[in-house]
Amino acid sequence: MGDEPKLRLNVVCLSDVQPEEVSWLWKPYLPIGKVTLLEGDPESGKSYLSLAIAAYITSGKSLPAYGVAASGAREPRNVLLLTGEDGTADTVLPRLLKVGGDSTRVFQLRGIVQTKDDKMLN
């Protein structure tokens, strides 16, 4: 009983925090290193938009500018894709390829696997 992990809150006093500037992947829409939620009505193009953004990122293209000069090409990066509705083989991959994405740089999270000693548990 004494070896069980204990939970506690992890808090910080804001006077101990150093302010910093936000770095943008696509200003003012996508900050780097932050969680961003894309939401909208059904059939409004959320999946296509997310895959188009992934295509820009994986190919190193600059995202469209918003009221500022577009930055130049970037180093291609990997993308972790979280999707819950569309099939990978029949929808996600064909759409990614259609918008010019690099499928070798896109990884889809399929779930969490429980392991013990680096071996999957059933």
Radius of gyration over all CA atoms, rounded: 19 Å
Strand order of the largest sheet: 1-2
| Overall pLDDT | 87
The coarse overall form would be extended
Structural overview:
The protein is extended, with a radius of gyration of 19 Å. It is built from two helices and six strands. Helix 1 (46-59) crosses helix 2 (88-98). It has 122 residues and is α+β, with helices and mostly antiparallel strands. The protein has one domain.
Keywords:
122 residues, alpha+beta, two-stranded antiparallel sheet, 2 helices, extended
What can be said about this structure in brief?
The chain is 20% helix and 12% strand. It has 122 residues and is α+β, with helices and mostly antiparallel strands.
